[in-house]
Amino acid sequence: MAAEPFLHLNHVNVVRGETPVLHDVNLTIHRGEHIALLGPNGCGKSTLLKTMTCELYPLAQPETEVRIFGRKRWDLTELKKQLGVVSAELPGRPFLQATGFDAILTGFFSSSTLWPNLTVTEEMRERAEKVLIQIDGARLRHKPVGEMSAGQVRRILIGRALAASAGTLLLDEPSNALDLAAQRELRNLMRELAQAGTTLVLITHNIADIIPEIERVLMMRDGRVIADGGKPELLTAERLGELFGTPVRLAESGGFYQAW
């Protein structure tokens, strides 16, 4: 029996300003799945992510349906306890002054720092301690975020997203601005999280970010999902060339893919 869907989209169309961005998207993702959403810049990937997190809403049409964890409506504060979102962007400038441990704690409040009016409970501290171990971030506990490398910051951002979420991570172009060593560390961490049962939805244009544990790939172009299938079917030079509009050469090693 398939696991319960965490996301179900039916005939979803999204307009930003006066510009249609998503066109008739139909998509179901189950809990425990690891999935990559692949496409060129500007294809609508980030808009789809914002639709998943209820930051954007689809056009109200009779056939349109959006269900997240089985529910049609969410209080955003409650939804953030179910979905952790990781991107290359920091929550705000005050975040740079926070230590690694405090930065993880901010995930409980979706804040950029631990403002004086926020109450950190002992339960939150215990959860943050577990997350710090989970992301192998003990050495970053007392280090200010502003003094960390880009790879270390990404590790802390993943911990921040995990702290308050219930095991589902949306990763939006997570390897952007990372050097080769930091990319390798990031992918190793993603593998550990996937193997531990965390649901991963990876949004990327970088083929190398698709870890071996990700078995399902969606391809997007011009605001539409144009393909949905397994890696052997979709991660081919021909299919990638059609997606990105350029000749592609492809190599696979140990479950990882490289394209150039």
From TrEMBL:
It comes from Granulicella rosea. PANTHER family: ABC TRANSPORTER ATP-BINDING PROTEIN MODF, HEAVY METAL TRANSPORTER. Residues 7-247 form the ABC transporter domain. Gene3D superfamilies: P-loop containing nucleotide triphosphate hydrolases. Keywords: ATP-binding, Nucleotide-binding, Transport. SUPFAM superfamilies: P-loop containing nucleoside triphosphate hydrolases (SSF52540). Pfam families: ABC_tran. It comes from the Bacteria. GO terms for cellular component: ATP-binding cassette (ABC) transporter complex. GO terms for molecular function: ATP binding; ATP hydrolysis activity; ATPase-coupled transmembrane transporter activity. This is Iron complex transport system ATP-binding protein. The keyword Iron-sulfur does not apply. InterPro entries: AAA+_ATPase (IPR003593), ABC_transporter-like_ATP-bd (IPR003439), ABC_transpr_CbiO/EcfA_su (IPR015856), ECF_ABC_transporter_ATP-bd (IPR050095), P-loop_NTPase (IPR027417).
